[in-house]
Amino acid sequence: MKNIKLIEIPSEIGAGTRGASMGIDAIKIASLDFMSNFFIHFPSETIPTENKLLYEPIESPYAKRIKGVVTMYERISKSVADTIKAGFFPLVLSGDHSTAGATIAGLKMAKPKSKLGVIWIDAHADLHTPYTTPSGNLHGMPLAISINEDNTESGSHELDASTKAQWNALKNIGKIAPKVLPEDIVFISLRDYEKEEKFIIDKYGMKVITTAEFRRKGAENVVRAVMRYLSDCTDIYVSFDVDSLDSAISKGTGTPVNNGLKEREAEDLISKLMQVRKISCFEITEVNPTLDKENLMAEIAFNILQRSANMLMMN
Question: Is 245 in a helix, a strand, or coil?
Fold first, then answer.
């Protein structure tokens, strides 16, 4: 049985659409609507944000609000590392996906000798860098940060000295780079990415499981195959971006994409993953209630959260 601690990160400075900072509160509202005492059941910590930067002019067009993101990485990685060292399982709720690189950093800082695997359940690859980004939004970059990749081969932007320094600081949080090897990352339901990201996926032969393949094989077989693939890894981090769900249901997120997972498929996938002993952290991200109808996305996220916690406590 794992002792769970909730880490809440209501930050949205890495996103292009406003509102993800309210995602955690929306999930809490869903829990109240379901008459659940989930949020008083576990110890929790809320990481202070830099969301005030949303009101200030953007300094780095290719890495928007990166200074604030560096600050967030320092806070979050320390919190995650301390949580693990204290013997807790970090269940992370975050606003936008940019901070996932900090969660990964915290895992690695707590266990520097561990070989870390990542299961990235997301419509997007999040492998952009300030050199390649079409938007400048850092929520498209956390995996590039984690594998210490600049991808200058595909790059089309020149960075100023300050942006370059901040980018290097992000990649080197915890003085460990890379945190994860590209071959130890598995994408599930990936379906919307740019040629610059495809270049990295192809360069390292990164593992991608499409929605169609997931549907064909079923959750149990997919989880078994993924665990075989990551069998060298000692610890595995699971990141669940709600836009991995099909856009027919995932209205309440900044970047919905069709041909995604159905709600039941996502629930099955996550609950099977949470039965695996090597899983040492789970994160849910990118719920945006300002784009939603009747808080549906947060309700789905809460169901998945509750099921995953139940599995962790049973295991």
Answer: strand
Q: Please, are residues 211 and 257 in contact by the beta-carbon 8 Å criterion?
A: no
* AA identity, residue 172: N
Question: Of 122, 235, 268, 283, which one is the catalytic site residue?
Answer: 122
Say which residues have a Cβ less than 8 Å from residue 154's Cβ, sequence separation at least 6.
131, 132, 195, 196, 199, 200
Tell me which residue range forms the domain holding 113: 4-314
Number of domains in the chain: 1
Active site residue 12: no
The token pair that represents 177 in the structure block: 């780079």
Active site residue 283: no
Clarify whether 157 is annotated catalytic. Answer: no
The token pair that represents 68 in the structure block = 């604030």
Helices 263-273 & 296-314, crossing angle to 10 degrees? 20
| Residues 115, 141 contacting (CB under 8 angstroms) | no
In this predicted model, what pLDDT tens digit does every residue of 223-236 receive, in sequence order? 999 999 999 999 99
- Provide the whole-model pTM: 0.98
pLDDT per position as a tens digit, 100-139: 999 999 999 999 999 999 999 999 999 999 999 999 999 9
